[in-house]
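Changelog excerpt: complex records now keep ligands as SMILES alongside chain sequences, and the structure block spans every component. Example after the change:
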Amino acid sequence: MAAPSLATEGISSGASLYNLSMTYWIHVAHSIDRVTLHRDRCSEVPSTQTSTDYWGGGWYDYPDKERALAAMEQAGPTDQRRCPLCKP
Ligand SMILES: [Zn+2]
């Protein structure tokens, strides 16, 4: 009865637009046992991807906050915080 093909198209095109504008970053720093959540446009997020090393830390981007938070849990550091600048 419904028109699933039309509905699916609408949802997928909308989702891809959101993915472009809503990105979260986590900064993992094992050397200080800390992982920090940032928003896409935070000034602390590097504009070019720098080389990632385990102890110095790395930047990882996620298309939504749910996945970023889950990644923070899995990253390992016990100190999980949100950036005071961009307040994600
Ligand atoms: Zn930030």
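Residues 1 and 78 are 51 Å apart (CA to CA). Residues 6-19 have pLDDT under 50 and may be disordered.
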